[in-house]
Write a sequence for this structure.
C-alpha cells in the first residue's frame, strides 16, 4: 500500500516537474519573441541599431539554452548535449572571428554566407524530419496535411535560399560571372513549375513516398537557386540579397510551424516579412517590379543609346582648384558609392567633412537606397567612420536640396547618379530614381578611371559641362585634397 502511494506521489511530482519545465520553456520562447520584435524595432534607427542587435541576440541565446536543458519529447530530454554545446562553441568562435576580420568591402559577401547557412539549416531540418511524419497522421489525411506542407516548403525554400546565396557570394566576390541567355528565364520558369508540381504530387499521395523522390526535390531546389541568381547582374544584387534573406526567414518560419516553436516562428516571420518589405522598397527605389529584376536584370547590359552620342569631352580639375572651390562653398553634398568602400576611404572622407565644416561649410551625405552591394551598405560604411547619422540624407530629401548646393562630390558612385535614368529612354536604367547631382552648381567626380558601373553603361554625368573629374584612388585623392585645403 505504501509503495503504491509513493509511486503515485512520485508520478505526480514528476508530472508537476515536467509541467513546470514546459511552462518555463514556453515563457522563454515568448520572451525571446518579444526581444526579437523590440530588437527589430530598434534596428529602424542607426543610433539604436547596436542595442537592437544585442537584444535580439540575447533572445536567441535564451531560446537556445533553455531548449537544450528543458525541451522534452515524450518525456525524454535532448540527447548528446555535450556534442551540441561543442558545435555551438565552434560555430560561435568561427562566426565571431569571421565578423571581426571581414573587411567592409566584403560585408555583402559575409551577409550572403550567413543567409545561405540559415537556408541550409532550414532545408536540413525538413530533410531530417520528413521520414518521421507520424504514421497515424498519414492514415488520417494521407500526405495532404499541414505538417507535410511545412516540411516541403522549408525544404524547397531553404534549398533555394542556400544555393542562391552561395551564387550571390561568388558574384559579389567576382569569382562567378553573369550568365546571360534569353532561354535561361524560360528554363527557370519550367524548373519552378516542376518543383511546384513535385510538392503537389507528394501532397496528393495517400502513403509515405520513397525518399529518393524527396532527394530529387532537394536537388531541383538547389539547381533552381543556382540558375535563379546566375543571370542577375551586379546592379540588382542588393535587391537579390534582401529577397534571399526573406526566403530564409520563410523557411525558418516553416521550421517554427513544424516544431510548434514560438521563438523560431516569430524570428522567421520577422526576417521573412522585413526582407520582403525591404525588397519591395528597393524595387520601388529603382522604379522596377520584382519580376523585372529577376527576369530582366540590367547588370551587364549594353551602353545606352542616343544620349551618349553627344560631346564626349572630359574636363579634369586640379587639386588646388578643387580645394578652393570646396573651401569657399556654403553647402556641399558627398555621394558615396562602392568605390569608396573598395578604397577604404570612409575615414578620410569623414576627415574631409570635419575640415570643411571647420571652415563654415555645411556638408551632408546623399545616400541612394541601392548604392553599394547590399541594403544599407553606405550607411554601415559611414557609421564605421563615426559620421553622425544626422548627416546621412536619403535620396528624396537630398534631391530637394540639390538646387541650393554649391558642390556635389561623387566618390566611387556611378549608376546612382547617371542622368541617363532620366533623359535616355533607350537606357536599361531609364526610370530608375537617381541622386540629381546635376541640379547642383558644380560636380566633382573622384574616380580611378572612366570605367562603367554595375549596369555596364556609359555615365553622361562625366561629360557634362558642370562636372570635373578628379582621377585617382579615392583614399589617396581625398588625402591630397585635405592636405591642399589645409595649406590654403
Amino acid at each position: 500500500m505504501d509503495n503504491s502511494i509513493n509511486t503515485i506521489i512520485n508520478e505526480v511530482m514528476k508530472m508537476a516537474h515536467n509541467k513546470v519545465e514546459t511552462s518555463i520553456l514556453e515563457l522563454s520562447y515568448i520572451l525571446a519573441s518579444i526581444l526579437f520584435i523590440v530588437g527589430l524595432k530598434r534596428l529602424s534607427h542607426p543610433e539604436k541599431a547596436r542595442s537592437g542587435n544585442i537584444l535580439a541576440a540575447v533572445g536567441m541565446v535564451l531560446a537556445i539554452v533553455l531548449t537544450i536543458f528543458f525541451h522534452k519529447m515524450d518525456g525524454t530530454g535532448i540527447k548528446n548535449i555535450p556534442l551540441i554545446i561543442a558545435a555551438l562553441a565552434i560555430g560561435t568562435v568561427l562566426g565571431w572571428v569571421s565578423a571581426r576580420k571581414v573587411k567592409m568591402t566584403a560585408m555583402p559577401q559575409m551577409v550572403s554566407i550567413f543567409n545561405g547557412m540559415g537556408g541550409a539549416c532550414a532545408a536540413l531540418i525538413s530533410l531530417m524530419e520528413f521520414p518521421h511524419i507520424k504514421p497515424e497522421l498519414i492514415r488520417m489525411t494521407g500526405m495532404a496535411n499541414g505538417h507535410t506542407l511545412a516540411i516541403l516548403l522549408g525544404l524547397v525554400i531553404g534549398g533555394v535560399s542556400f544555393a542562391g546565396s552561395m551564387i550571390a557570394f561568388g558574384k559579389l566576390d567576382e569569382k562567378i560571372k553573369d550568365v546571360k541567355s534569353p532561354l535561361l528565364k524560360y528554363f527557370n520558369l519550367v524548373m519552378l513549375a516542376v518543383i511546384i508540381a513535385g510538392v503537389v504530387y507528394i501532397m496528393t499521395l495517400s502513403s509515405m513516398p520513397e525518399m529518393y523522390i524527396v532527394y530529387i526535390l532537394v536537388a531541383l531546389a538547389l539547381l533552381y537557386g543556382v540558375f535563379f541568381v546566375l543571370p542577375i547582374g551586379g546592379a540588382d544584387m542588393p535587391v537579390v540579397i534582401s529577397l534571399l534573406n526573406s526566403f530564409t526567414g520563410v523557411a525558418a518560419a516553416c521550421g517554427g510551424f513544424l516544431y510548434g516553436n514560438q521563438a523560431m516562428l516569430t524570428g522567421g516571420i520577422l526576417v521573412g516579412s522585413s526582407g520582403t518589405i525591404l525588397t519591395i522598397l528597393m524595387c520601388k527605389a529603382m522604379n522596377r517590379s520584382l519580376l523585372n529584376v529577376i527576369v530582366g536584370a540590367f547588370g551587364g547590359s549594353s551602353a545606352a543609346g542616343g544620349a551618349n552620342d553627344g560631346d564626349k569631352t572630359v574636363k579634369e580639375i586640379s587639386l588646388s582648384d578643387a580645394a578652393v572651390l570646396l573651401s569657399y562653398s556654403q553647402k556641399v553634398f558627398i555621394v558615396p558609392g562602392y568605390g569608396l568602400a573598395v578604397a577604404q576611404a570612409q575615414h578620410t572622407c569623414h576627415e574631409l567633412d570635419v575640415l570643411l565644416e571647420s571652415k563654415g561649410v555645411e556638408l551632408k551625405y546623399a545616400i541612394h537606397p541601392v548604392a553599394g552591394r547590399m541594403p544599407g551598405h553606405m550607411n554601415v560604411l559611414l557609421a564605421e567612420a563615426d559620421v553622425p547619422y544626422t548627416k546621412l540624407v536619403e535620396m528624396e530629401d537630398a534631391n530637394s536640396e540639390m538646387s541650393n548646393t554649391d558642390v556635389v562630390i561623387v566618390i566611387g558612385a556611378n549608376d546612382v547618379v547617371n542622368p541617363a535614368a532620366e533623359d535616355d529612354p533607350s537606357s536599361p536604367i531609364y526610370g530608375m530614381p537617381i541622386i540629381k547631382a546635376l541640379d547642383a552648381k558644380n560636380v566633382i567626380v573622384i574616380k580611378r578611371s572612366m570605367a562603367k558601373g554595375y549596369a555596364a553603361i556609359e555615365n553622361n554625368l562625366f561629360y557634362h559641362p558642370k562636372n570635373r573629374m578628379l582621377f585617382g584612388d579615392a583614399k589617396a585623392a581625398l588625402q591630397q585634397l585635405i592636405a591642399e585645403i589645409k595649406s590654403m
Summary: Residues 2-42 form the longest helix (41 residues).
